[in-house]
């Protein structure tokens, strides 16, 4: 990386994900500090900090406390209470936490590689901030990242994060199924998946076949393309039933007007968009970042890079907000998040 | 916050690590590096 950018890399915004990541709702309450009752940025910082003091088991650590809405003297659903007048300020926040061991292992790896960590961010969150439009987040949208070992889902509504989950199942299992079903090596199965598999077997004519000889000189077998896609479909069905279940827990099964936006290498599977629409009964599209960027832009549309691009943009956005001297420490951070949610 | 005009995102995924470097050139974010490397299979 340093050689292509011809620059020395000292630090990075690092994305963390995995099934150990969970979310919960937390509430915080503080008394407004100014005598005249005007709510300040510092009150908002204190109330978010109060929401952070949630009882977590000792083996878990908080990654993010994301304010969803504020309550001022019983008046609910306030997006930005700064400047309002009141006595009691409450916040409802989404707390994203992860396993301490996983966080420690990751940070240790990064330090051993000689890098400093600017920020540790739940990766799909950063992707959601930069790959979803304000409008999508307002009307309701899900970001679905299909990776190799995991599939992650982040749901936004009314501009706020509603839910996040990481499922312990990804596109790598499709490869494994193909290797078992077609009796090939994992390497061959991976090539078959990338080059010949479709998410919708009905799209393939019975007569179409794939010769295994092109992957392995010792092989003579021909495989029906339809059979390949049937194997893929079975596992994809399982992934999508887990996703639908997650959506059901928040009452959003088939109910996200802006649909789902797909990222991750697994989203490159042929006909996946159409299959996603069928499985989830929602609109679906491949994610695109919303910034105007220069440089190596040709690869930017590749969903494999979505998360790293999002984390880079997150780094940029946060540096912008923390340049302001009036927003130090956690306040700057809270503001940074607010900036994404309420631009 | 990065110490210089270089923004780096490091995505440690379940099967690969991907890095994206960006710098500000003439007011625009310029992608100066984009790479990924698959984890070795266990
Ligand atoms: N063209 C493609 N078609 C189908 N699957 C693909 C394609 N390219 C990559 N994949 C799959 O994407 C997965 C890796 O996705 P990625 O987002 O890089 O994972 P992670 O971030 O979890 O490490 C692998 O299982 C790989 O087989
Ligand atoms: Mg990933």
Could you characterize what this model shows?
The complex is a heterodimer of chains A (343) and B (42). Chain A contains 11 helices and 14 strands. By secondary structure, chain A is α/β, with parallel strands linked by helices. In chain A, a hairpin with a 4-residue loop joins strand 7 (141-146) and strand 8. The radius of gyration of chain A is 23 Å and the shape is elongated. In chain A, 43% of the residues are buried. The model of chain A is unreliable at 322-343 (pLDDT under 50). Chain B starts with 6 loop residues before the first strand and ends with a strand. Chain B has strands at residues 7-12, 16-25, 28-38. The model of chain B has no long low-confidence stretch (mean pLDDT 85). A 3-stranded antiparallel sheet of chain B has the order 1-2-3, with no helix packed on it. Strand 14 of chain A pairs parallel with strand 3 (28-38) of chain B. The structure holds adenosine-5'-diphosphate (ADP) and magnesium ion. Adenosine-5'-diphosphate (ADP) sits between chains A (147-150, 170-172, 175, 190, 193-194, 264-266, 268-269, 304) and B (13-16). Adenosine-5'-diphosphate sits between chains A (147-150, 170-172, 175, 190, 193-194, 264-266, 268-269, 304) and B (13-16).
